[in-house]
Amino acid sequence: MPEYIVWRDEFSVRFDEIDKQHWQIIGIINEMYQCVKGNGTEDKFVEALGDLKTYTETHFAYEEGIMRLAEFPAIEEHEKLHHAMAEKTAGLFKLKLGNKSQIKEKALDFLKEWWVGHIRAKDVEYIPFVEALSAKIKNGGG
Ligand SMILES: [Fe+2]
Ligand SMILES: [Fe+2]
User: Fold this and answer.
1) Residue 98 DSSP symbol
2) What 3 state SS string does 59-89 have?
3) C-alpha of residue 119 to centroid of ligand 2, in Å
C-alpha cells in the first residue's frame, strides 16, 4: 500500500531540524492511516494520536522559537494558525473514534490537508528569514 502522505522535496523549508520534525509528523499520520486501513489495532491508533498531539505541540513551540530568532514579521498570524491547529488536534480525542472508520478517515483527510497546506503555503514564508539567520550564525555575526 502506498504511503498516505508521500514526502516531497517541495515540503522542505531548507532547515534540517524543522524538516525532520515535519517528516516525523507526516510519519505519525501515515501510521494512523495504516491503523484505519486494518493494519493496526484501536489501541495503536489512539497511541499514534497521542504521539501526534505531543509532536505537534513540540514542533509548533520549536518553530515559533526559530521564527522569533529570525525576526519573521508575520509570526503573530502564524502562531494563531498553530494555536488553532493544536486545539483541533487535542479535540480529536473527544471524537468517539471507536470503530467508526469513516470518522477516522475524515479526521485523517483533515490532518493531511492541513499539514501539507500549512507547510507549503505558510511555513515556506519564513524560509528567507531563517536562511538569513543561519548565514548570520555561520559568519559569527551577532
Ligand atoms: Fe508552522
Ligand atoms: Fe511547521
Assistant:
1) T
2) HHHHHHHHHHHCCCCCHHHHHHHHHHHHHHH
3) 6
Query: In angstroms, what is the span from residue 30 Cα to ligand 1's centroid?
Result: 19
Nearest ligand by distance to the CA of 79: 1
Which domains are seen in the chain, by residue range? 16-137 (1.20.120.50)
Instruction: Residue 107: name the closest of 119, 121, 91 by CA.
Output: 91
Compute the average pLDDT of residues 87-97: 84
pLDDT top residue among 129 and 38: 129
Q: Residue 96: name the closest of 108, 105, 104, 87 by CA.
A: 104
Positive or negative, the CA dihedral 103, 105, 109, 115 is positive
Q: Measure the CA–CA gap between 100 and 102, rounded to whole angstroms.
A: 5
**What region does 98 belong to: left with phi over 0, alpha with psi -120 to 50, or beta?**
left
Nearest ligand to the CA of 121 is: 1
- The pLDDT > 90 percentage for the chain reads 79
C-alpha cell at 95: 471524537
